[in-house]
Amino acid sequence: MDHDADRATVTEVLARAGCVAAEEEADELIAAAASGSGRDLADLVARRLTGEPLAWITGHTNFCGLDVAVDPGVYVPRWQSEPLARLAADLLPPTGTGVDLATGSGAVAMVMQVARPAARVVATEIDPAAVRCARRNGVEVHPGHLDRPLPADLAGEVDVLCAVLPYVPSNALHLLPRDVVAFEPRVALDGGAAGLDLVAAVIGAGRHWIRPGGWVVLEIGGDQVPAVTALLEGSGYAAAGALVDGDGDPRAVYGRRSGSPSASREGPGHRSQPGP
Prior knowledge:
Elements: H1 3-16, H2 22-33, H3 41-49, H4 54-58, E1 60-63, E2 66-69, H5 82-91, E3 97-101, H6 107-115, E4 120-125, H7 128-136, E5 140-143, E6 158-163, H8 178-183, H9 197-209, E7 210-219, H10 225-234, E8 237-244, E9 250-257
Parallel strand pairs: 3-4, 3-6, 4-5, 6-7
Antiparallel strand pairs: 1-2, 7-9, 8-9
Helix pairs in contact: 1-2, 5-6
């Protein structure tokens, strides 16, 4: 069949269904159908029209310029999380130790490892399907809840601890896009009554793992910056600040564990080695 005709037809169908980036999605679906996997383009388009995440259909997504494998059922990394990943990579010393909790597909851990190939990057994940996916992406991932499965020898040795955790309040989940609620795993969305149950838990646990002068970087909702900043400051973190995403919305909060950092561990404005 004619590629241009396919592209025009698929783009029109997706656009009518409300896909904002219809042309780009059409290209990805056509490429997936032509990959030799035996998948039919019409079937792939039909799946997308149900609201199924594009990454589940094609099997991958782009994150910070990296090709990340994403299996069906695994939380899809968002472009809004890219500033967090880049900051975590910037703060990680070349031979330091980075931790990514609740890693999902392993996208953030991948960014840190590519930017700092001589560093040790460790991740955790509670969902078995996501564990398998992250390992396929080359991530050292330990199965379990948040920091519980981290190797004991990392206590007090972590330079950067980051996490993209669920932060949507339970009573606000219905406000999310219908396809997100229908397809994305609830455990990756529901942050508890105020949305900060897991965020607060990680801030508290981080003191056990992060070395003095090390950093914690956490994704949050825009209206949660004051509350999370207060949690950080109340738990012995200084230099707290917020990151914004490409739309200018607050997307992450970071803080530095109190203590004397080494000269190589500068603040968020420092970039000793370009990230991906």
